[in-house]
């Protein structure tokens, strides 16, 4: 693929893909300050559709250049068209920079607008097809308002998949409770878990009006359930807690092993087998060492 370097006017690039990217205010302020003090450190990336230079990567830099009134930006011209333009938006930021909502929006665009199959999208984005499927399912389940609130950061992005479990008619109410009481992602997920388990309307109404009280009750119950046996002295409590944590992980793995998974490549089998052997050896040695340490003295 041929790549050229050119100068572009910030106001003249096509911003049709801006809808897939979020520009948080704090990040924008930082970019303006950086561009003002250090200049442009990395070229933006554009591609031509025949009539316009379409911005693929560098939306914060482009906006910051407009704010500062810069006459031009250095740009890399990438020769790609159609769905490949959109795919490169993700590939250029694969390591970081794309939220789960942005990923879902992009995947839906590739499937519903570009007409690609999920397997094709997975190959194009260098991801597994199950990864594509989960994000597509999430974005389709979320209401338009929820997507917008998540993009704006009004709701913790980590709660997106949990919100998608709710019917769209309930998402706005739960979202309002999350925003009003400033719940973090972990708290939001727990609230949604409680909502899904609560059958009566009175209980659900309490969750919406007093989410922190409800979460406090649940957390207190969990803490009591995990409290150390009063017969155990403080010097031995840490040992018991560590062993019980190991027991929980083992129970989780055993339950997960009951589920069927799709066929895996031979290389993946080898990696997993090695991980299993390593974990097995480590657990055996750890328990042996712990028993030896706490065994009764004659």
Task: Describe what this molecule looks like in 3D.
The chain has 14 helices and four strands. The mean pLDDT is about 85. Among the domains are: about 80 residues, Conserved hypothetical protein from pyrococcus furiosus pfu- 392566-001, ParB domain (Alpha-Beta Complex), CATH 3.90.1530.10; about 45 residues.
Keywords:
single chain; 298 residues; alpha+beta; Conserved hypothetical protein from pyrococcus furiosus pfu- 392566-001, ParB domain; four-stranded mixed beta sheet
Strand % is 5-15%
Question: Order of strands in the sheet with the most strands?
Answer: 1-4-2-3
Question: The CATH topology of the domain at 1-81 is what?
Answer: Conserved hypothetical protein from pyrococcus furiosus pfu- 392566-001, ParB domain
- Coarse morphology: globular
CATH superfamily of the domain at 1-81: Conserved hypothetical protein from pyrococcus furiosus pfu- 392566-001, ParB domain
Indicate the low-confidence ranges by residue numbers.
none
Describe the main β-sheet briefly.
4 strands, mixed
**Overall helicity:** 55-70%
The total beta strand count reads 4
Radius of gyration: 25 Å
Average pLDDT figure: 87
List the secondary-structure elements in sequence, H or E: EHEEHEHHHHHHHHHHHH
Name given to the CATH architecture of the domain at 1-81: Alpha-Beta Complex
Structural category is alpha+beta
Q: Roughly how many Å apart are the termini? A: 75 Å
What is the class of the domain at 1-81 in the CATH system? Alpha Beta
Number of helices: 14
């Amino acid at each position: 693929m041929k790549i050229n370097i050119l100068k572009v006017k910030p106001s003249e690039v096509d911003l049709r893909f801006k809808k897939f990217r979020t520009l948080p205010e704090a990040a924008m302020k930082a970019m303006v300050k950086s561009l003002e003090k250090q200049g442009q450190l990395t070229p933006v990336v554009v591609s031509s559709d025949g009539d316009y230079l379409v911005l693929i990567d560098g939306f914060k830099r482009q906006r910051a250049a407009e704010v500062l009134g810069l006459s031009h930006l250095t740009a890399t011209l990438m020769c790609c068209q159609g769905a490949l333009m959109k795919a490169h938006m993700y590939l250029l930021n694969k390591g970081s920079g794309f939220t789960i909502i942005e990923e879902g929006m992009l995947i839906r665009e590739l499937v519903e607008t570009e007409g690609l199959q999920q397997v094709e999208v997975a190959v194009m984005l260098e991801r597994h097809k199950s990864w594509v499927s989960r994000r597509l399912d999430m974005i389709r389940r979320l209401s338009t308002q929820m997507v917008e609130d998540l993009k704006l950061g009004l709701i913790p992005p980590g709660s997106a998949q949990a919100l998608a479990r709710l019917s769209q008619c309930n998402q706005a109410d739960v979202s309002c409770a999350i925003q009003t009481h400033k719940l973090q992602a972990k708290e939001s997920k727990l609230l949604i878990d409680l909502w899904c388990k609560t059958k009566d309307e009175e209980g659900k109404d309490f969750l919406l009006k007093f989410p922190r009280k409800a979460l406090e009750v649940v957390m207190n119950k969990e803490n009591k359930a995990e409290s150390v046996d009063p017969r155990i002295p403080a010097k031995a409590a840490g040992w018991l807690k560590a062993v019980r944590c190991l027991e929980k992980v083992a129970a989780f793995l055993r339950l997960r092993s009951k589920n069927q998974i799709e066929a895996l490549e031979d290389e993946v089998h080898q990696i997993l087998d090695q991980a299993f052997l390593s974990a097995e050896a480590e657990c055996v040695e750890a328990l042996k060492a712990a028993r030896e340490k706490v065994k009764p003295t004659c």
